[in-house]
Amino acid sequence: MLSDLLAEAGTHLEIAGAALAIAIAVGVPLALLTAKTRFVRAATLGGVGIARSLPTIAVLALLLPWLGVGRLPAILALALLALPPIAISVDAGMRSLSAAQREVADALGLGARTRFLRVEVPATTPLALAGLRTAGVECIASATLATFIGGGGLGDGIVRGLQTGNETLLLLTAGTVAVLAFAVDALLSLLARSAEAHT
Length: 199
Known about the structure:
This protein is mainly α. The chain has one domain: MetI-like (MetI-like fold, Orthogonal Bundle). The chain contains 8 helices and no strands. Helix 1 packs antiparallel against helix 2 (38-53), helix 3 crosses helix 4 and helix 6 runs antiparallel to helix 8. The longest helix has 35 residues, at 2-36. The N and C termini lie far apart (47 Å).
């Protein structure tokens, strides 16, 4: 049972990690664009907000006809779930720059690249990490649904526990999901506090 649990936990982390990586790769550039352009921001963040309201299981069902079963549709569904908190938090961070910070950057004659790296990134990081924290916990928790389309992960153990009436397996697997979610939350919370202390 322990070997199965460890293997399923590994698969679970792979699915959640891949989804989070995709959400970051799409969400951060998207937020940088929306923060600079009001029209694009209104249209894009509105769409992102709608995506956030969709249940993960519904997204999985919508992806089935095109992607079939397995890990890929599960990863893409979770990425869609993780995208809104990342994009919204980075956008908010970019727009949180004070007038004084902008004036200092202008007074120093900083170029666009230097201004971005030395002023905008440090100011945005705490809020961005808060969004990443939310997205990470949601990915870990929702990755259990991957089992319903053959994606694997800790959802397999939960389903086996329910089907066989094995309460020990059910509690152990659900407990592992909770521990992983708490660990991700604690790590990203620590990083967010550290980033905030250095801004």
